[in-house]
Structures are given as structure tokens and as C-alpha cells.
Amino acid sequence: MQASLDRYLKNKGYKVSIIRGRKFAKSNKILKGKAITLRHEGKGTRPNATDALTWEGEEMLWKEDRLGRHTPEVLLKTTWYLVTQHFGLRGRQENYDFCVGHFKFAKDENGRTYVMFAHSNPTKTRKSSIKL
Fold first, then answer.
1. For residue 58, how many C-alpha atoms fall within 13 Å in the half-sphere facing its CB?
2. I need a labelling partner for 91 at 20 to 30 A (CA). Which of 97, 99, 104, 122 fits?
3. In sequence order, what DSSP letters do the residues of 94-107 get, joined into one string?
4. Could you tell me if residue 86 is inside a domain?
5. Coil, helix or strand for 62?
6. Residues 6+ apart with CB under 8 A from 28
7. 59 and 26: one domain?
8. What is the 3-state secondary structure (H, E, C) of 111-132?
9. What is the maximum span of the chain, computed from C-alpha positions, in angstroms?
10. For residue 122, what pLDDT is reported?
11. 105 within 8 A of 115, measured Cβ to Cβ
């Protein structure tokens, strides 16, 4: 939040950084101390990672009709889940940015057409383009 405010002020022509400026050294020290205190109390920065879905957990979703094709909403959620799993998409932004342009048709040595995932922006789980 502090970085956003600093960026906003910079864009408005404010010359002193509220993060690095000497005028703000004391308030930054107090802010840092408060953040440390809150973390020790179990507040503040929390891990964003979630536990991976187990095979049993996925089976339960199918059995309870939370995944499937029986309603448009469930079909949409199922499609999102499968695309996320098979293409290694990690977060909301990667899902949002995912588009048809990331694929192309190609032919193998036997003349069979296949779809290739041709998006080249590497991520933590996807180091380079993946051929399907």
C-alpha cells in the first residue's frame, strides 16, 4: 500500500519518496515495527498458498456433482478446473490472460493435425512452451 501511495505521489509531481526519503525515515521505522508486532500476533502477512487437491478430493467433487456437465455453471467450473490443471495455470491473472491465441495447429510427421500450446511466457510451473 505504501508503494502504491508513493507511486501516486510521484505521478502527481511530489519530489520526495515516502519510502526512501529522509523526511519519512522515522515514520517508516515505526511502520516497520508495527508490522513486525502484528506478525508476531499472527496478523498481517499470511501465506497465499493453498494445499493441493488430492486425488480423493477430486473424486469427491465428481461424485457430489460439483464437477461435471449437468448444469452450465458446473460445466464452466469443470472447464476452468481442467484447463488450470492441464496447462499449469497458477493464479487469477494467468487464467484471465489465457486465450485462443496461445494455441496453434500443427501437423506431425504422419500428417495428423494436433493443437500446440504455443504461449511463450514462462511461469513458475511452465518454463517454456508445452506441446500437447
1. 9
2. 104
3. HHHH--GGGEEEEE
4. yes
5. helix
6. 18, 19
7. no
8. CCEEEEECCCCCCCCCCCCECC
9. 70
10. 56
11. yes
Predicted pLDDT of residue 104: 87
62 and 12 in a common domain: no
Cell of 111: 500428417
The reply to whether 59 and 103 lie within a common domain is yes
Q: What is the pLDDT of residue 129?
A: 45
- The phi and psi torsions of 104 (rounded to 5 degrees) equal -150, 155
Query: Does some domain include residue 125?
Result: no
The answer as to whether 22 is a domain residue is yes
Taking only the tens of pLDDT, the chain with its 132 residues reads 788 899 999 999 988 899 988 999 999 999 989 988 888 887 766 666 677 889 999 999 999 999 999 999 999 999 988 888 887 777 777 778 888 888 889 999 999 999 887 766 656 555 544 444
> In angstroms, rounded to a whole number, what is the distance separating the alpha carbons of residues 109 and 65?
41
Q: Copy the grid coordinates of residue 50.
A: 493453498
| Total domains present in the chain | 2
For residue 22, what are the domain limits? 2-40
Cα distance between residue 68 and residue 89, in whole Å: 20
